Amino acid sequence: MTSTTNDTTGSAIDPTTTTAWEALEAHYLEQTTSLREWFEQDPQRAERFSRTAADLHVDLSKNLITAETMELLLDLAREVDLEGRRAAMFAGEHINTTEDRAVLHTALRRPEGAEPALEVDGQDVDADVHATLRRVYDFADKVRSGEWTGVTGKRIETVVNIGIGGSDLGPAMIYEALKPLAQEGLEARFISNIDPTDAYDTTADLDPETTLVIVASKTFTTLETITNARLVREWLLGGLRDRGLDQDLEAEAVRRHFVAVSTALDKVEEFGIDPENAFGFWNWVGGRYSVDSAIGTVLATVLGPDAFEELLAGFHAMDEHFRTAPLEDNVPVLMGMLNVWNVNFQGAETHAVLPYSQYLHRFPAYLQQLTMESNGKSVRWDGSLVSYDTGEVFWGEPGTNGQHAFFQLLHQGTRLIPADFIAFATPNHPLTDGEQDVHELFLANFFAQTKALAFGKTAEEVRAEGTEGALVAAREFSGDRPTTSIMAPKLTPSVLGQLIALYEHITFVQGVVWGINSFDQWGVELGKQLAKGLAPAVAGDEQAIAAEDSSTAALIRYYREHRG
Ligand code: F6P
After folding, report:
1. Quick check: is 528 catalytic?
2. Domain range holding 218?
3. Where is this protein primarily located (predicted)?
4. Which residues have any ligand 1 atom within 6 Å of their CB?
Protein backbone atom coordinates (compact mmCIF):
# COMPACT_ATOMS: atom_id res chain seq x y z
CA MET A 1 0.00 0.00 0.00
CA THR A 2 1.70 3.19 -1.14
CA SER A 3 0.28 6.67 -1.01
CA THR A 4 1.83 9.98 -1.90
CA THR A 5 -1.21 11.75 -3.23
CA ASN A 6 -2.96 14.71 -1.74
CA ASP A 7 -5.67 14.74 -4.35
CA THR A 8 -8.58 14.49 -1.95
CA THR A 9 -9.48 18.14 -1.90
CA GLY A 10 -12.28 18.06 -4.44
CA SER A 11 -15.47 19.86 -3.57
CA ALA A 12 -17.38 18.37 -0.66
CA ILE A 13 -20.84 16.98 -1.22
CA ASP A 14 -23.64 18.95 0.41
CA PRO A 15 -25.51 16.03 2.01
CA THR A 16 -28.81 17.91 1.88
CA THR A 17 -28.71 17.71 -1.92
CA THR A 18 -28.62 13.92 -1.95
CA THR A 19 -31.62 11.74 -2.78
CA ALA A 20 -31.21 9.87 0.49
CA TRP A 21 -31.37 13.08 2.57
CA GLU A 22 -34.63 14.05 0.91
CA ALA A 23 -35.98 10.53 1.46
CA LEU A 24 -34.95 10.66 5.11
CA GLU A 25 -36.78 13.97 5.56
CA ALA A 26 -39.96 12.45 4.12
CA HIS A 27 -39.45 9.31 6.18
CA TYR A 28 -39.10 11.36 9.35
CA LEU A 29 -42.38 13.17 8.67
CA GLU A 30 -44.23 9.93 7.86
CA GLN A 31 -42.94 7.89 10.76
CA THR A 32 -45.08 7.42 13.86
CA THR A 33 -42.62 6.46 16.49
CA SER A 34 -43.53 4.03 19.22
CA LEU A 35 -40.85 1.80 20.65
CA ARG A 36 -43.57 -0.02 22.61
CA GLU A 37 -45.42 -0.90 19.44
CA TRP A 38 -42.31 -1.67 17.44
CA PHE A 39 -41.13 -4.13 20.09
CA GLU A 40 -44.60 -5.69 20.39
CA GLN A 41 -44.98 -6.09 16.65
CA ASP A 42 -41.51 -7.51 16.09
CA PRO A 43 -40.27 -10.01 18.67
CA GLN A 44 -36.97 -10.16 16.73
CA ARG A 45 -36.36 -6.42 17.00
CA ALA A 46 -33.45 -6.69 19.48
CA GLU A 47 -31.78 -9.33 17.34
CA ARG A 48 -32.51 -7.41 14.14
CA PHE A 49 -30.78 -4.29 15.45
CA SER A 50 -27.91 -5.85 17.42
CA ARG A 51 -24.41 -6.23 16.02
CA THR A 52 -21.03 -7.50 17.14
CA ALA A 53 -17.76 -5.69 16.59
CA ALA A 54 -14.71 -7.49 17.96
CA ASP A 55 -15.67 -8.07 21.64
CA LEU A 56 -18.41 -5.46 21.72
CA HIS A 57 -22.09 -6.38 21.64
CA VAL A 58 -24.04 -3.35 20.45
CA ASP A 59 -27.83 -3.16 20.73
CA LEU A 60 -29.30 -0.38 18.60
CA SER A 61 -32.89 -1.58 18.93
CA LYS A 62 -33.95 1.07 21.45
CA ASN A 63 -33.27 3.84 18.93
CA LEU A 64 -36.02 5.61 17.00
CA ILE A 65 -35.41 3.63 13.85
CA THR A 66 -37.05 1.07 11.63
CA ALA A 67 -35.41 -1.16 9.04
CA GLU A 68 -36.31 1.52 6.49
CA THR A 69 -34.55 4.24 8.49
CA MET A 70 -31.36 2.21 8.53
CA GLU A 71 -31.60 1.49 4.82
CA LEU A 72 -32.03 5.17 4.01
CA LEU A 73 -29.16 6.12 6.30
CA LEU A 74 -26.90 3.63 4.54
CA ASP A 75 -28.05 5.05 1.19
CA LEU A 76 -26.90 8.42 2.46
CA ALA A 77 -23.56 6.93 3.54
CA ARG A 78 -23.07 5.57 0.03
CA GLU A 79 -24.13 8.80 -1.65
CA VAL A 80 -21.55 10.81 0.27
CA ASP A 81 -18.96 8.14 -0.61
CA LEU A 82 -18.22 7.07 2.93
CA GLU A 83 -16.46 3.97 1.66
CA GLY A 84 -14.18 5.99 -0.63
CA ARG A 85 -13.35 8.40 2.14
CA ARG A 86 -12.64 5.56 4.56
CA ALA A 87 -10.30 3.93 2.02
CA ALA A 88 -8.56 7.29 1.54
CA MET A 89 -7.97 7.62 5.27
CA PHE A 90 -6.56 4.11 5.70
CA ALA A 91 -4.32 4.59 2.64
CA GLY A 92 -2.78 7.78 4.01
CA GLU A 93 -4.23 10.27 1.54
CA HIS A 94 -4.15 13.87 2.70
CA ILE A 95 -7.75 14.04 3.88
CA ASN A 96 -6.77 16.67 6.47
CA THR A 97 -6.94 19.24 3.72
CA THR A 98 -6.44 22.48 5.67
CA GLU A 99 -3.15 21.18 7.03
CA ASP A 100 -2.35 19.09 3.94
CA ARG A 101 -1.76 16.00 6.06
CA ALA A 102 -2.54 12.33 6.03
CA VAL A 103 -4.72 11.01 8.88
CA LEU A 104 -3.15 7.79 9.99
CA HIS A 105 -3.84 7.06 13.63
CA THR A 106 -4.92 3.61 12.41
CA ALA A 107 -1.29 3.00 11.38
CA LEU A 108 -0.19 3.34 15.01
CA ARG A 109 -1.83 0.05 15.86
CA ARG A 110 -1.03 -2.05 12.81
CA PRO A 111 0.71 -5.20 13.98
CA GLU A 112 4.35 -5.62 13.04
CA GLY A 113 4.65 -7.16 9.59
CA ALA A 114 1.09 -6.29 8.52
CA GLU A 115 0.59 -6.75 4.79
CA PRO A 116 0.61 -4.89 2.51
CA ALA A 117 3.21 -2.57 4.06
CA LEU A 118 2.14 1.04 4.46
CA GLU A 119 4.29 3.70 2.84
CA VAL A 120 3.05 7.28 2.92
CA ASP A 121 4.77 10.34 1.44
CA GLY A 122 7.95 8.30 1.14
CA GLN A 123 7.86 7.22 4.79
CA ASP A 124 7.92 3.56 5.77
CA VAL A 125 5.19 4.09 8.33
CA ASP A 126 5.17 0.58 9.80
CA ALA A 127 8.92 0.55 10.36
CA ASP A 128 8.87 3.96 12.07
CA VAL A 129 5.89 3.10 14.27
CA HIS A 130 7.44 -0.13 15.50
CA ALA A 131 10.92 1.34 15.97
CA THR A 132 9.40 3.99 18.24
CA LEU A 133 7.31 1.45 20.12
CA ARG A 134 10.43 -0.61 20.78
CA ARG A 135 12.19 2.45 22.23
CA VAL A 136 9.17 3.29 24.39
CA TYR A 137 8.94 -0.29 25.69
CA ASP A 138 12.68 -0.42 26.34
CA PHE A 139 12.45 2.77 28.38
CA ALA A 140 9.35 1.47 30.21
CA ASP A 141 11.11 -1.78 31.06
CA LYS A 142 14.09 0.11 32.49
CA VAL A 143 11.88 2.21 34.74
CA ARG A 144 9.81 -0.80 35.80
CA SER A 145 12.83 -2.94 36.61
CA GLY A 146 14.56 -0.18 38.57
CA GLU A 147 17.45 0.00 36.10
CA TRP A 148 16.45 3.62 35.35
CA THR A 149 16.89 5.61 38.53
CA GLY A 150 16.71 9.24 39.53
CA VAL A 151 19.89 11.28 39.82
CA THR A 152 20.42 10.19 43.45
CA GLY A 153 20.15 6.53 42.49
CA LYS A 154 16.64 5.95 43.82
CA ARG A 155 14.08 3.89 41.98
CA ILE A 156 11.24 5.78 40.22
CA GLU A 157 7.92 5.59 42.08
CA THR A 158 5.83 8.25 40.34
CA VAL A 159 5.57 9.15 36.67
CA VAL A 160 4.07 12.61 36.15
CA ASN A 161 2.67 13.24 32.68
CA ILE A 162 2.55 16.92 31.76
CA GLY A 163 0.35 17.59 28.74
CA ILE A 164 -3.03 19.00 27.80
CA GLY A 165 -5.87 18.08 25.44
CA GLY A 166 -4.89 15.01 23.46
CA SER A 167 -1.59 14.83 25.30
CA ASP A 168 -3.42 14.44 28.61
CA LEU A 169 -7.02 13.28 28.28
CA GLY A 170 -6.26 9.95 26.57
CA PRO A 171 -3.45 8.86 28.91
CA ALA A 172 -5.34 10.09 32.00
CA MET A 173 -8.59 8.40 30.96
CA ILE A 174 -6.88 5.08 30.19
CA TYR A 175 -4.82 5.17 33.37
CA GLU A 176 -7.99 5.62 35.41
CA ALA A 177 -9.70 2.83 33.47
CA LEU A 178 -6.90 0.30 33.87
CA LYS A 179 -5.41 1.39 37.18
CA PRO A 180 -5.55 -2.11 38.69
CA LEU A 181 -2.85 -3.09 36.17
CA ALA A 182 -0.35 -0.52 37.47
CA GLN A 183 2.88 -2.07 38.71
CA GLU A 184 3.05 -2.17 42.47
CA GLY A 185 5.06 0.75 43.77
CA LEU A 186 4.63 2.76 40.57
CA GLU A 187 1.88 5.32 39.99
CA ALA A 188 0.99 7.87 37.33
CA ARG A 189 -0.11 11.44 37.88
CA PHE A 190 -1.23 14.07 35.42
CA ILE A 191 -0.76 17.83 35.23
CA SER A 192 -2.60 19.71 32.50
CA ASN A 193 -4.10 23.01 33.65
CA ILE A 194 -2.05 26.22 33.54
CA ASP A 195 -3.77 27.10 36.82
CA PRO A 196 -0.66 26.65 38.99
CA THR A 197 -2.82 24.88 41.53
CA ASP A 198 -2.69 21.79 39.32
CA ALA A 199 1.10 21.49 39.36
CA TYR A 200 1.25 22.52 43.02
CA ASP A 201 -1.31 19.97 44.20
CA THR A 202 -0.02 17.14 42.04
CA THR A 203 3.56 17.49 43.24
CA ALA A 204 2.84 18.51 46.86
CA ASP A 205 3.35 15.05 48.36
CA LEU A 206 5.88 13.74 45.84
CA ASP A 207 9.53 13.02 46.39
CA PRO A 208 11.62 14.63 43.63
CA GLU A 209 14.21 11.88 43.98
CA THR A 210 11.70 9.22 42.91
CA THR A 211 9.69 11.29 40.39
CA LEU A 212 10.02 11.01 36.63
CA VAL A 213 8.37 13.61 34.40
CA ILE A 214 7.10 13.01 30.89
CA VAL A 215 6.52 16.24 28.99
CA ALA A 216 3.98 15.28 26.33
CA SER A 217 3.21 17.79 23.61
CA LYS A 218 2.76 17.17 19.91
CA THR A 219 3.94 20.69 19.03
CA PHE A 220 6.06 21.36 22.13
CA THR A 221 4.81 24.95 21.97
CA THR A 222 1.61 24.66 24.00
CA LEU A 223 1.72 27.39 26.63
CA GLU A 224 0.17 25.29 29.41
CA THR A 225 2.51 22.35 28.93
CA ILE A 226 5.73 24.28 28.54
CA THR A 227 4.85 26.47 31.54
CA ASN A 228 3.99 23.45 33.68
CA ALA A 229 7.16 21.69 32.54
CA ARG A 230 9.19 24.71 33.70
CA LEU A 231 7.26 24.87 36.98
CA VAL A 232 7.89 21.21 37.70
CA ARG A 233 11.55 21.52 36.68
CA GLU A 234 11.88 24.32 39.27
CA TRP A 235 10.11 22.18 41.87
CA LEU A 236 12.28 19.15 41.12
CA LEU A 237 15.61 20.96 41.06
CA GLY A 238 14.63 23.00 44.14
CA GLY A 239 13.78 19.80 46.01
CA LEU A 240 17.02 18.14 44.97
CA ARG A 241 19.06 21.21 45.92
CA ASP A 242 17.46 21.13 49.37
CA ARG A 243 18.79 17.59 49.68
CA GLY A 244 22.27 18.75 48.79
CA LEU A 245 22.40 18.17 45.04
CA ASP A 246 25.51 19.76 43.61
CA GLN A 247 24.83 22.49 41.03
CA ASP A 248 27.06 20.66 38.56
CA LEU A 249 24.63 17.78 38.61
CA GLU A 250 21.54 19.81 37.64
CA ALA A 251 21.80 19.08 33.90
CA GLU A 252 22.18 15.41 34.75
CA ALA A 253 19.14 15.64 37.05
CA VAL A 254 17.04 17.00 34.18
CA ARG A 255 18.35 14.18 32.01
CA ARG A 256 17.42 11.53 34.57
CA HIS A 257 14.07 12.99 35.59
CA PHE A 258 12.64 14.46 32.36
CA VAL A 259 11.73 12.68 29.17
CA ALA A 260 9.57 14.03 26.36
CA VAL A 261 7.11 12.95 23.71
CA SER A 262 6.67 15.19 20.71
CA THR A 263 6.74 15.58 16.95
CA ALA A 264 9.08 18.57 17.43
CA LEU A 265 12.26 16.96 18.71
CA ASP A 266 14.34 20.10 18.08
CA LYS A 267 12.20 22.02 20.58
CA VAL A 268 12.54 19.18 23.11
CA GLU A 269 16.31 19.61 22.97
CA GLU A 270 16.01 23.38 23.40
CA PHE A 271 14.12 22.72 26.63
CA GLY A 272 17.13 20.77 27.94
CA ILE A 273 15.78 17.26 27.52
CA ASP A 274 18.25 14.78 26.09
CA PRO A 275 17.10 13.75 22.56
CA GLU A 276 18.05 10.22 23.64
CA ASN A 277 15.15 10.45 26.08
CA ALA A 278 12.59 11.78 23.62
CA PHE A 279 10.04 9.72 21.77
CA GLY A 280 8.66 11.01 18.50
CA PHE A 281 5.51 10.71 16.50
CA TRP A 282 4.34 12.21 13.25
CA ASN A 283 2.16 15.04 12.03
CA TRP A 284 -0.29 12.52 10.55
CA VAL A 285 -1.41 11.78 14.11
CA GLY A 286 -3.90 14.34 15.41
CA GLY A 287 -3.50 15.25 19.09
CA ARG A 288 -6.90 13.82 20.03
CA TYR A 289 -6.05 10.61 18.15
CA SER A 290 -2.60 10.21 19.68
CA VAL A 291 -3.00 8.16 22.85
CA ASP A 292 -1.83 5.06 21.00
CA SER A 293 1.37 6.81 19.82
CA ALA A 294 4.35 7.56 22.06
CA ILE A 295 1.92 9.88 23.89
CA GLY A 296 1.01 6.66 25.71
CA THR A 297 4.55 6.35 27.16
CA VAL A 298 3.19 7.01 30.66
CA LEU A 299 0.80 4.07 30.18
CA ALA A 300 3.45 1.71 28.80
CA THR A 301 5.62 2.63 31.78
CA VAL A 302 3.12 2.34 34.61
CA LEU A 303 0.71 -0.28 33.23
CA GLY A 304 3.42 -2.09 31.29
CA PRO A 305 4.30 -2.77 27.64
CA ASP A 306 2.11 -5.91 27.63
CA ALA A 307 -0.99 -3.95 28.61
CA PHE A 308 -0.13 -1.28 26.01
CA GLU A 309 0.29 -3.93 23.32
CA GLU A 310 -3.09 -5.39 24.24
CA LEU A 311 -4.64 -1.94 24.05
CA LEU A 312 -3.18 -1.47 20.55
CA ALA A 313 -4.49 -4.88 19.49
CA GLY A 314 -7.97 -3.80 20.63
CA PHE A 315 -7.76 -0.61 18.57
CA HIS A 316 -6.64 -2.64 15.57
CA ALA A 317 -9.46 -5.16 15.92
CA MET A 318 -11.97 -2.29 15.68
CA ASP A 319 -10.07 -0.72 12.77
CA GLU A 320 -10.32 -3.98 10.88
CA HIS A 321 -14.02 -4.25 11.63
CA PHE A 322 -14.57 -0.67 10.42
CA ARG A 323 -12.41 -1.19 7.32
CA THR A 324 -13.88 -4.50 6.21
CA ALA A 325 -17.38 -5.16 7.62
CA PRO A 326 -20.26 -4.54 5.22
CA LEU A 327 -22.02 -1.27 5.98
CA GLU A 328 -25.11 -3.13 7.26
CA ASP A 329 -23.03 -4.82 9.98
CA ASN A 330 -20.47 -2.12 10.52
CA VAL A 331 -20.95 -0.80 14.04
CA PRO A 332 -19.06 2.52 13.70
CA VAL A 333 -20.92 3.17 10.45
CA LEU A 334 -24.31 2.33 11.97
CA MET A 335 -23.68 4.37 15.12
CA GLY A 336 -22.30 7.31 13.15
CA MET A 337 -25.27 7.30 10.79
CA LEU A 338 -27.63 7.03 13.76
CA ASN A 339 -26.04 10.15 15.20
CA VAL A 340 -26.68 11.91 11.88
CA TRP A 341 -30.30 10.73 12.07
CA ASN A 342 -30.63 12.07 15.60
CA VAL A 343 -28.93 15.41 14.93
CA ASN A 344 -30.21 16.30 11.48
CA PHE A 345 -33.67 14.74 11.42
CA GLN A 346 -34.75 14.30 15.03
CA GLY A 347 -33.22 17.60 16.17
CA ALA A 348 -30.94 16.30 18.92
CA GLU A 349 -28.42 18.88 20.09
CA THR A 350 -26.51 16.79 22.58
CA HIS A 351 -25.50 13.17 23.10
CA ALA A 352 -24.93 11.53 26.47
CA VAL A 353 -22.32 8.84 27.05
CA LEU A 354 -22.99 6.93 30.24
CA PRO A 355 -20.45 4.30 31.21
CA TYR A 356 -21.69 1.95 33.91
CA SER A 357 -18.15 1.57 35.15
CA GLN A 358 -16.51 3.78 37.73
CA TYR A 359 -13.16 3.10 36.08
CA LEU A 360 -14.45 4.85 32.93
CA HIS A 361 -15.24 8.06 34.78
CA ARG A 362 -12.99 10.12 32.48
CA PHE A 363 -14.31 8.51 29.28
CA PRO A 364 -16.97 11.19 28.58
CA ALA A 365 -14.36 13.96 29.03
CA TYR A 366 -12.03 12.13 26.65
CA LEU A 367 -14.85 11.79 24.11
CA GLN A 368 -15.65 15.47 24.38
CA GLN A 369 -12.32 16.38 22.83
CA LEU A 370 -12.46 13.55 20.31
CA THR A 371 -15.92 14.38 19.02
CA MET A 372 -16.26 18.12 19.57
CA GLU A 373 -12.79 19.22 18.46
CA SER A 374 -13.27 16.98 15.42
CA ASN A 375 -16.79 17.84 14.31
CA GLY A 376 -17.46 21.28 15.83
CA LYS A 377 -17.13 22.98 12.44
CA SER A 378 -19.34 25.18 10.25
CA VAL A 379 -17.56 24.87 6.91
CA ARG A 380 -17.03 21.87 4.68
CA TRP A 381 -13.55 20.75 3.69
CA ASP A 382 -13.76 22.84 0.50
CA GLY A 383 -14.50 25.97 2.54
CA SER A 384 -18.22 26.15 1.73
CA LEU A 385 -20.60 26.97 4.60
CA VAL A 386 -22.82 24.20 5.94
CA SER A 387 -26.57 24.79 6.05
CA TYR A 388 -27.31 22.03 8.58
CA ASP A 389 -26.27 21.16 12.10
CA THR A 390 -22.93 19.44 12.65
CA GLY A 391 -21.18 18.21 15.82
CA GLU A 392 -23.49 17.64 18.75
CA VAL A 393 -22.43 18.34 22.34
CA PHE A 394 -21.13 15.16 23.98
CA TRP A 395 -21.33 14.87 27.73
CA GLY A 396 -21.84 12.30 30.46
CA GLU A 397 -20.94 10.82 33.81
CA PRO A 398 -20.72 7.27 35.02
CA GLY A 399 -23.85 5.45 36.08
CA THR A 400 -25.32 5.20 38.57
CA ASN A 401 -24.16 8.67 39.74
CA GLY A 402 -25.83 10.36 36.78
CA GLN A 403 -29.16 8.73 37.67
CA HIS A 404 -29.31 10.83 40.80
CA ALA A 405 -28.26 14.00 39.05
CA PHE A 406 -29.36 14.66 35.47
CA PHE A 407 -31.37 11.58 34.45
CA GLN A 408 -34.57 13.43 35.39
CA LEU A 409 -34.12 15.52 32.25
CA LEU A 410 -33.36 12.46 30.13
CA HIS A 411 -36.59 10.81 31.28
CA GLN A 412 -39.04 13.71 31.40
CA GLY A 413 -37.40 16.79 29.89
CA THR A 414 -38.50 18.42 26.64
CA ARG A 415 -35.30 17.64 24.74
CA LEU A 416 -34.39 14.55 22.81
CA ILE A 417 -31.06 13.31 24.13
CA PRO A 418 -29.72 10.14 22.55
CA ALA A 419 -27.59 8.23 25.05
CA ASP A 420 -24.99 5.48 24.82
CA PHE A 421 -25.00 3.13 27.80
CA ILE A 422 -21.81 1.10 28.28
CA ALA A 423 -21.44 -1.86 30.66
CA PHE A 424 -19.31 -4.94 31.32
CA ALA A 425 -20.52 -8.40 32.26
CA THR A 426 -17.61 -9.31 34.54
CA PRO A 427 -16.96 -7.03 37.49
CA ASN A 428 -13.48 -5.72 38.20
CA HIS A 429 -14.12 -6.45 41.86
CA PRO A 430 -16.73 -9.15 42.55
CA LEU A 431 -18.10 -8.01 45.90
CA THR A 432 -21.22 -8.69 47.90
CA ASP A 433 -22.73 -6.47 50.59
CA GLY A 434 -23.45 -9.56 52.66
CA GLU A 435 -26.76 -10.15 50.90
CA GLN A 436 -26.39 -9.47 47.22
CA ASP A 437 -23.88 -9.45 44.39
CA VAL A 438 -23.34 -5.70 44.07
CA HIS A 439 -22.31 -5.91 40.41
CA GLU A 440 -25.71 -7.48 39.64
CA LEU A 441 -27.43 -4.65 41.46
CA PHE A 442 -25.35 -2.22 39.42
CA LEU A 443 -26.22 -3.93 36.12
CA ALA A 444 -29.90 -4.09 37.05
CA ASN A 445 -29.76 -0.28 37.06
CA PHE A 446 -28.11 -0.25 33.65
CA PHE A 447 -30.83 -2.49 32.18
CA ALA A 448 -33.62 -0.61 33.97
CA GLN A 449 -32.62 2.81 32.68
CA THR A 450 -32.66 1.99 28.97
CA LYS A 451 -35.94 0.15 29.49
CA ALA A 452 -37.53 3.14 31.25
CA LEU A 453 -36.25 5.56 28.61
CA ALA A 454 -37.55 3.41 25.77
CA PHE A 455 -40.95 2.34 27.07
CA GLY A 456 -41.81 4.95 29.69
CA LYS A 457 -44.93 4.65 31.82
CA THR A 458 -48.41 5.55 30.55
CA ALA A 459 -51.07 7.52 32.47
CA GLU A 460 -53.08 4.29 32.81
CA GLU A 461 -50.12 2.52 34.36
CA VAL A 462 -49.61 5.43 36.74
CA ARG A 463 -53.29 5.35 37.75
CA ALA A 464 -53.17 1.58 38.16
CA GLU A 465 -50.53 2.16 40.85
CA GLY A 466 -53.04 4.27 42.79
CA THR A 467 -52.01 7.78 41.72
CA GLU A 468 -54.79 10.25 40.93
CA GLY A 469 -55.38 13.84 39.77
CA ALA A 470 -52.65 16.23 38.70
CA LEU A 471 -49.96 13.90 40.00
CA VAL A 472 -50.70 11.48 37.18
CA ALA A 473 -49.16 13.75 34.54
CA ALA A 474 -46.14 14.46 36.75
CA ARG A 475 -45.50 10.73 37.16
CA GLU A 476 -46.01 9.80 33.53
CA PHE A 477 -43.03 8.92 31.32
CA SER A 478 -43.39 9.41 27.56
CA GLY A 479 -40.77 6.81 26.60
CA ASP A 480 -39.35 6.84 23.04
CA ARG A 481 -36.08 8.26 24.30
CA PRO A 482 -33.34 6.71 22.19
CA THR A 483 -30.49 4.70 23.66
CA THR A 484 -27.75 2.40 22.41
CA SER A 485 -26.47 -0.30 24.75
CA ILE A 486 -22.86 -1.39 24.41
CA MET A 487 -21.74 -4.42 26.38
CA ALA A 488 -18.47 -6.33 26.57
CA PRO A 489 -17.34 -9.30 28.65
CA LYS A 490 -14.89 -7.24 30.75
CA LEU A 491 -13.07 -3.92 30.83
CA THR A 492 -9.67 -5.10 29.58
CA PRO A 493 -6.99 -3.12 27.71
CA SER A 494 -8.18 -4.71 24.46
CA VAL A 495 -11.83 -3.85 25.07
CA LEU A 496 -10.89 -0.29 25.99
CA GLY A 497 -8.89 0.03 22.76
CA GLN A 498 -11.92 -1.25 20.85
CA LEU A 499 -14.19 1.29 22.53
CA ILE A 500 -11.90 4.22 21.78
CA ALA A 501 -11.44 3.19 18.14
CA LEU A 502 -15.22 2.72 17.87
CA TYR A 503 -15.81 6.36 18.81
CA GLU A 504 -12.95 7.57 16.60
CA HIS A 505 -14.61 5.94 13.62
CA ILE A 506 -18.12 7.09 14.59
CA THR A 507 -16.70 10.63 14.62
CA PHE A 508 -15.15 10.06 11.19
CA VAL A 509 -18.43 8.78 9.73
CA GLN A 510 -20.34 11.84 10.93
CA GLY A 511 -17.63 14.14 9.58
CA VAL A 512 -17.81 12.50 6.17
CA VAL A 513 -21.59 12.90 5.96
CA TRP A 514 -21.32 16.55 6.95
CA GLY A 515 -18.46 17.05 4.48
CA ILE A 516 -16.21 18.53 7.15
CA ASN A 517 -12.55 18.04 7.92
CA SER A 518 -12.65 16.27 11.29
CA PHE A 519 -8.88 16.54 11.70
CA ASP A 520 -8.04 20.20 12.08
CA GLN A 521 -8.88 22.51 15.03
CA TRP A 522 -8.56 26.11 13.90
CA GLY A 523 -11.28 27.06 16.37
CA VAL A 524 -8.87 26.88 19.28
CA GLU A 525 -6.45 29.42 17.79
CA LEU A 526 -8.20 32.76 18.38
CA GLY A 527 -8.36 32.36 22.15
CA LYS A 528 -4.67 31.38 22.30
CA GLN A 529 -3.71 34.39 20.18
CA LEU A 530 -5.77 36.82 22.26
CA ALA A 531 -4.45 35.43 25.56
CA LYS A 532 -0.89 36.20 24.42
CA GLY A 533 -1.87 39.69 23.33
CA LEU A 534 -3.58 40.43 26.64
CA ALA A 535 -0.47 39.80 28.74
CA PRO A 536 0.58 43.50 29.03
CA ALA A 537 -2.95 44.58 30.02
CA VAL A 538 -3.23 41.82 32.62
CA ALA A 539 0.17 42.87 33.98
CA GLY A 540 -1.23 46.38 34.54
CA ASP A 541 -0.23 48.42 31.47
CA GLU A 542 -2.92 51.17 31.64
CA GLN A 543 -2.60 52.07 27.99
CA ALA A 544 -3.08 48.44 27.00
CA ILE A 545 -6.10 48.13 29.31
CA ALA A 546 -7.68 51.28 27.88
CA ALA A 547 -7.30 49.90 24.36
CA GLU A 548 -9.52 46.91 25.21
CA ASP A 549 -13.31 46.78 24.76
CA SER A 550 -15.14 48.09 27.82
CA SER A 551 -16.09 44.68 29.16
CA THR A 552 -12.60 43.17 28.89
CA ALA A 553 -11.04 46.36 30.31
CA ALA A 554 -13.43 46.34 33.29
CA LEU A 555 -12.76 42.66 34.01
CA ILE A 556 -9.00 43.22 33.93
CA ARG A 557 -9.39 46.24 36.25
CA TYR A 558 -11.47 44.10 38.60
CA TYR A 559 -8.63 41.58 38.64
CA ARG A 560 -6.02 44.30 39.24
CA GLU A 561 -8.02 45.71 42.16
CA HIS A 562 -8.78 42.41 43.84
CA ARG A 563 -5.66 40.34 43.38
CA GLY A 564 -4.20 39.28 46.66
O1 F6P B 1 -5.34 23.70 21.39
C2 F6P B 1 -5.85 22.47 21.02
C3 F6P B 1 -4.76 21.45 20.90
O4 F6P B 1 -3.96 21.74 19.81
C5 F6P B 1 -5.32 20.03 20.83
O6 F6P B 1 -5.71 19.68 19.56
C7 F6P B 1 -4.16 19.26 21.35
O8 F6P B 1 -4.53 17.95 21.72
C9 F6P B 1 -3.76 20.11 22.52
O10 F6P B 1 -3.94 21.44 22.07
C11 F6P B 1 -2.35 19.93 22.98
O12 F6P B 1 -1.42 20.16 21.97
P13 F6P B 1 0.07 19.68 22.08
O14 F6P B 1 0.07 18.19 22.19
O15 F6P B 1 0.75 20.17 20.83
O16 F6P B 1 0.68 20.31 23.31
Report:
1. yes
2. 119-308
3. cytoplasm
4. 164-167, 217-219, 222, 225, 287-288, 373, 521, 524
